[in-house]
Amino acid sequence: MPALEVRPFRRADRDQLTELINLHVAAVVPGASVSVNTVLSALERQPDEFITDPWVSERVTLVAEQRNYVVAAAHLLRYRSDDEVGPQYQDIGEIDWFVCHPQASFWPDSDEAGDLLMHACLAQLARWNVRARYAGGELPAPAVYGLPRTWPHIRALYERAGFRHVGDTEVILIARVADLPPREPRPGVTVDRTLGECGTRLTAYAHGHALGFIEVDTALSRPERQARGKGLADIGNLHIGPSAYGEGLEHWLLGQAADWLGLCGVDRLLAYEAATDGTMIDHLTSAGFRELTRTDRGWEHRPE
Hints:
Layout: E1 5-8, H1 14-26, E2 33-34, H2 36-44, E3 56-66, E4 69-79, E5 92-100, H3 110-128, E6 132-135, E7 147-148, H4 152-160, E8 163-165, E9 169-176, E10 190-196, E11 199-206, E12 209-217, E13 226-228, E14 232-240, H5 249-263, E15 268-274, H6 278-286, E16 290-296, E17 299-301
Parallel strand pairs: 5-6, 14-15
Antiparallel strand pairs: 1-3, 2-13, 3-4, 4-5, 6-17, 7-16, 8-17, 9-15, 9-16, 10-11, 11-12, 12-14
Helix pairs in contact: 3-4
Organism: Streptomyces regalis
Protein name: N-acetyltransferase domain-containing protein
InterPro entries: Acyl_CoA_acyltransferase
């Protein structure tokens, strides 16, 4: 069997790297994938992370190659230590994402490749001499962040290397827009459409007072970003005011959103909730959502 080699990413790796990334994306979000241009752009900067991305001082992408094929890859970030950087991020190093073929008959050495690449990642973090080492799985695709439970091979690799989950767990849910509650009139309640913080905002009003709102982002499938995944949107915010809580307004707002999303050509809607928020998860599942996976955010290197 040809020897494994860990080396810096080369532009000629772009198609194989994108294929490997898309294998991991597809295990989280059905039908989603990213383009080669998206992957290359994300290696240089993360435009969606407009707060934290300017704090990054160095970026390194490493690949493990065998038989002229990229078997595993990782992208590392180093954050500056000056006062402009948020205290939580000052002088830290992070494995932003790590992807690796699971062990199979055609990649019998994939575990070895992953461990060898992880060793190189830890060596890079050591050379940076950062105060803390973190890891995640933030691929440049919608709903792929933290460490999804659909990647048990990556979780096992992180744990073998001494990373431990120290953060929160979130539930990623999906619904067919056609399965959401129908748009129905609600006596005394009107809806107003405006631009919100995280997309289009639909606000319910009664007697001049806002009862609650929902925001949906339909820009997840920008053509320069996604190879596939058209018709996908997510809930940016869903808020019900205290005066309307418990009256089913969240289902009514989802019905309003479903009508708008249908006009936009969107057929699937994503939602994200803390695993501890059982009430909101119950509201969403009763409205047509189902759980895609759970993802564990916040991994820190704590070797025993």
